[in-house]
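re the bet — no i am not wrong, look at it urself. input seq straight from the record:
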Amino acid sequence: MADRTTQGGAGGADGAADGIRTFPFPADLSLSGVGMQIGAMGAGRTWHADAPLERVHRIDFHVVMLFTHGPVRHMIDFAEYRAEAGDVLWIRPGQVHRFSGTDRYRGTVLTMQPGFLPRATVEATGLYRYDLPPLLRPDADRLSALRHALAQLEREYVDTTTLPLSLHTAVLRHALTAFLLRLAHLAASAVEPARDRPDTPFTRFRDAVEKDFATRHSVSGYADALGYSRRTLLRAVRSATGETPKGFIDKRVVLEAKRLLAHTEMPIGRVGVAVGFPDAANFSKFFQQHTGATPVAFRAELR
């Protein structure tokens, strides 16, 4: 993990737009300034000197941790995960998470800046498959393969003298892709076999929802923007997730509302506005319909 980083990120300066602090990838700390970092986990590490990792925060980059010791408890989006030695924890951009004391984290941590890999690789490796579980438990053979791939990536990362920077970066991308392809296969095998392929109607819909859920809740709006019929979208989303497109959208909106209610002091009305409900009454009705609790009650239970 990096010792420090700059402030700002997806939520604006210090994440002030939604009250949850967001930290960008600390590119200035990468060897040769490349869009990734890899090294040992350990005590005293943080994304920023004045923001301990034990506090709830977001990051706008990917983090993969391969543990050599455990157990370690880590919170990601209202779920607590218990990682043991040999487990892998994959945290994606935008997810709210919290460490449980960095002195207990032992192993290797890999961070990746969005945009470091080409889109084809991003799709093939499932970098934005938020439907996949963050905690992975590889068997002995897969764990050995992951460790070898990660060790090779680390060797290439620290070797900054034998190649020009352009070739060094290209080699890193290839080594990183090899590791992530193994990791993606492990993640996909942890759930039902993936039924979607790169650039299918579902993957395009999924990416559009992640980008626009706070301002667009209409299935027709997404269908029109993507150039699909509602029926095509329905078939694609049901095949990939078992849900309707509307259910998929609503689930993402509810998750963001929960994040803001639990981890910020934003007034209920502002939380509603942040997820696309200018009218506080409509937001409360929507939230209660999907969670069984009003926003006020949900927040009170967590305080």
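see?? The chain has ten helices and ten strands. told u. also The longest helix spans residues 165-189. so pay up
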